[in-house]
Design a protein that fits this description.
Largest sheet: 8 strands, mixed
Strand order of the largest sheet: 3-4-2-1-5-6-8-7
Distance between the termini: 37 Å
InterPro entries: SAM-dependent_MTases_sf
Shape: elongated
Order of helices and strands: HHEHEEEHEHEHHHHHHEE
CATH topology of the largest domain: Rossmann fold
CATH class of the largest domain: Alpha Beta
Number of strands: 8
Strand content: 15-25%
Protein name: Methyltransferase domain-containing protein
Number of helices: 11
Bound molecules: S-adenosylmethionine
CATH architecture of the largest domain: 3-Layer(aba) Sandwich
Structural class: alpha/beta
Number of domains: 2
Length: 304
C-alpha cells in the first residue's frame, strides 16, 4: 500500500521538483512577504536560541530562517527540523533534522531541546490539528511562539496545483498506464515514443494555453530521455523512462495532498480556539501574484 510519505520521500530524493530550493532567499516572492511579516511580530523572546521547524524537507530555508530570526550576538540559532520523509541528518553542531512525524514528535522529544519558536512553512496543515497541538505540548519545555504559513484553497499555489493536476490527469490516463506496461515487457522504446508523441499532440490540440507550462517541462525531459537511444542498453533505457513516469505519478500525489491540505487550516485553528489558546495573528498574506497563504501565530503555553 502507498505510504502517505512516499511522494515526499521521492521529492526530497529526486531534487528535480523543488518548491524553493536554492532559490529560497529574500528575492523569493513568498520569502520576502513572510520575512516582512515576521519582522513586525512581537515574539516572547526577540533573540530566540532554538527553533523547531515542522515539515522542514531538506532544510533549504534554514539559512534564511537564521537571517529572519536573529539570535544573540555571537550565537547561532539552533535549528531542529522534523520531516517524516527525510532521513536523520546532522548538518552541523547547530542544525539537526529528525525523521519524525510532527503529530507525535517521538524522536524530537529525545533531543530535550527547549524551543523558543516553532515554525512551519506549508507543512502544519498536512497534519491532524488535534494531534499536532498535543505533540507540541509534549515537546514544550516552556512557552513557545508558533508561526505557521499554511496553504489556502484560493492561493496562487493552489490555483497552479489545480492546473498542473489537470495536465497530469490528461497525460497519465489509462492508455498511458497500458503503454507503460507494454514498455516494461517489450522494451520497445520506439513504440512508446510514438505513443507519447500522439498523447502530447492530443493535449496540444485541446488548445488550453494554461497547460503548456507543465507540458514544456515534461517535453524537455522526454526529449532528453528519448534522444541518444543506445540499442545495446534498451533495458536500462526503458527503465529510465518508466522511472520518470513514476516520478510524475508521485508529483500528482503531492499535488492532490497539497490541495487537500489547503482546506485543512480551519481545523487547526478551530482546535486552538477550542483549547483556549490565544491566537495573535491569523491573516492572509498577499504578494504581487495574489494570495500566498494563511499566517498563524499563537503562543503555546505548555499544559499538563
Ligand atoms: C509542502 S512540503 C513543505 C516543505 C518545506 N517546509 C518547504 O516549504 O519547502 C510539506 C512537508 O511536510 C512533510 N510532512 C507532511 N505531513 C507530515 C507529518 N505528519 N509529519 C512530518 N512531516 C510531514 C512532508 O514530508 C513534506 O516534506
Amino acid at each position: 500500500m502507498q505510504n502517505k510519505n512516499t511522494p515526499w520521500q521521492s521529492y526530497w530524493k529526486d531534487t528535480s521538483f523543488d518548491t524553493f530550493g536554492a532559490r529560497f532567499s529574500d528575492e523569493n516572492p513568498i520569502a520576502g512577504v513572510l520575512a516582512k511579516e515576521i519582522s513586525s511580530i512581537n515574539f516572547l523572546n526577540s533573540t530566540p536560541q532554538s527553533l523547531l521547524d515542522l515539515g522542514c524537507g531538506r532544510g533549504e530555508h534554514f539559512r534564511w530562517l537564521r537571517h529572519v530570526f536573529p539570535s544573540l550576538e555571537g550565537k547561532t540559532l539552533k535549528i531542529t527540523g522534523v520531516d517524516a520523509a527525510v532521513p536523520d541528518t546532522k548538518i552541523d553542531a547547530n542544525t539537526q533534522i529528525y525523521t519524525d512525524n510532527f503529530e507525535s514528535l517521538i524522536n524530537t522529544r529525545r533531543s530535550q531541546e527547549a524551543f523558543d519558536i516553532v515554525f512551519a512553512l506549508f507543512a502544519a496543515e498536512y497534519g491532524n490539528g488535534r494531534k499536532l497541538v498535543r505533540a507540541l505540548n509534549n515537546v514544550a519545555k516552556k512557552s513557545m511562539d508558533c508561526l505557521f504559513l499554511m496553504h489556502t484553497p484560493d492561493s496562487v499555489i493552489s490555483a497552479k496545483s489545480k492546473i498542473s493536476l489537470n495536465f497530469y490527469e490528461l497525460l497519465l490516463d489509462k492508455a498511458t498506464t497500458t503503454a507503460l506496461r507494454i514498455l516494461k515487457k517489450s522494451h520497445d522504446i520506439k513504440a512508446f515514443e510514438m505513443y507519447v508523441l500522439g498523447k502530447i499532440n492530443s493535449i496540444v490540440n485541446l488548445n488550453r494555453p494554461e497547460l503548456m507550462e507543465d507540458m514544456q517541462l515534461v517535453v524537455q525531459r522526454l526529449q532528453q530521455l528519448f534522444s541518444a537511444v543506445d540499442l545495446r542498453k534498451k533495458v536500462a533505457h526503458a527503465h529510465a523512462l518508466i522511472e520518470y513516469f513514476e516520478q510524475l505519478k508521485m508529483h500528482v500525489l503531492r499535488l492532490e495532498q497539497q490541495l487537500k491540505a489547503a482546506k485543512n487550516s480551519d481545523s487547526l485553528v478551530d482546535e486552538l480556539v477550542k483549547q483556549n489558546y490565544e491566537i495573535k495573528v491569523d491573516k492572509c498574506l498577499q504578494n504581487q501574484f495574489g494570495e500566498v497563504g494563511r499566517l498563524l501565530h499563537f503562543v503555546l503555553v505548555p499544559r499538563i
